[in-house]
Recover the amino acids of this structure.
């Protein structure tokens, strides 16, 4: 079975509180995009299934999120044999775009289909929760408000048609480390989540773009923040209606009304950065 695993961006990301279990309660408006990995999921050739990708440095075996998802599915559904998963990566890794979670979600969807287990998307999301906080959203896709650890989802009206340019600078930011730098009481600027959902309901692209904001930008190390601001600056200069960092970064995205301006922004960014993508909402 062949399928796509779509990346996500955060139109907003807010951190509400630190929890007893070490996680944080979040409030995020998430959007899936057409940038996607390609997966092939087949019944395993050997006794044990394996997940491989065209990126040699990705973990294989039990540490690979796709393989963890396969094991979680078998355990929860009590069905579904061993599977081999082959992944062609297009989503940059450790980028704040939920690439690993998207692959895990696609494996759950594929195993549900291949095994005939017939689980609902909600049931798949509950299985995905154990693999990673972003997996439930990746199962559902589209546009949604994600709360709790990220697993409590409320569907939202779709992002109006637009062009999205994503640029990933060549460094990675550890998600747990970034969370540990956040002092929730010291967050001074927060996204207007209610305003964002209202703008989506009104189909107001400019209103959405104006309200994009990610509280993690406030706790970045100065040299990382400088790179993020530089990319945001190029996107805005080229006509983006808004620009922000996605997830725990370092990917930055800009939302454009005009395809020509989005292409211009991509070309400008490619003069300085290697990983630049032009995509749309999904
Ligand atoms: O759930 P996931 O494995 O993707 O999370 C990675 C890490 O990010 C967690 O171990 C935790 O440190 C942090 N995290 C958090 N609060 C969340 C999601 C993730 O503190 N809601």
């Amino acid at each position: 079975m062949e399928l796509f695993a779509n990346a996500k961006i955060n139109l907003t990301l807010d951190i509400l509180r630190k929890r007893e279990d070490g996680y944080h309660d979040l409030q995020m408006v998430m959007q899936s995009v057409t940038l996607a990995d390609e997966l092939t999921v087949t019944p395993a050739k050997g006794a044990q299934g394996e997940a491989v990708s065209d990126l040699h440095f990705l973990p294989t075996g039990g540490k690979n999120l796709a393989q963890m998802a396969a094991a979680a599915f078998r355990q929860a559904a009590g069905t579904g044999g061993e599977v081999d998963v082959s992944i062609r990566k297009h989503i940059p890794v450790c980028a704040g775009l939920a690439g690993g979670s998207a692959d895990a979600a696609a494996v759950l969807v594929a195993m549900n289909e291949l095994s005939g287990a017939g689980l609902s998307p909600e049931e798949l999301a509950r299985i995905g929760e154990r693999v990673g906080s972003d997996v439930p959203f990746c199962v559902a896709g589209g546009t949604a408000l994600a709360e709790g650890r990220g697993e409590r989802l409320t569907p939202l009206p779709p992002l109006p048609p637009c062009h999205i340019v994503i640029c990933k600078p060549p460094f990675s930011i550890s998600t747990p480390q970034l969370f540990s730098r956040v002092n929730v009481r010291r967050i001074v600027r927060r996204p207007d989540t209610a305003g964002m959902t209202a703008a989506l309901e009104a189909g107001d692209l400019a209103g959405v773009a104006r309200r994009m904001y990610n509280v993690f930008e406030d706790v970045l190390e100065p040299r990382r923040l400088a790179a993020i601001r530089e990319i945001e600056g190029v996107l805005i200069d080229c006509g983006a209606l808004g620009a922000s960092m996605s997830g725990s970064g370092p990917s930055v995205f800009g939302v454009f009304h005009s395809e020509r301006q989005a292409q211009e922004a991509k070309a400008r960014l490619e003069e300085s950065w290697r990983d630049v993508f032009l995509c749309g909402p999904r």
Q: What stands out?
A: The chain has a mean pLDDT of 96. Residues 163-279 form a domain with the Alpha-Beta Plaits fold (CATH 3.30.70.890). The pocket of cytidine-5'-monophosphate is lined by residues 23-24, 26, 132-134, 149-150, 175-176, 179 (CB under 6 Å).
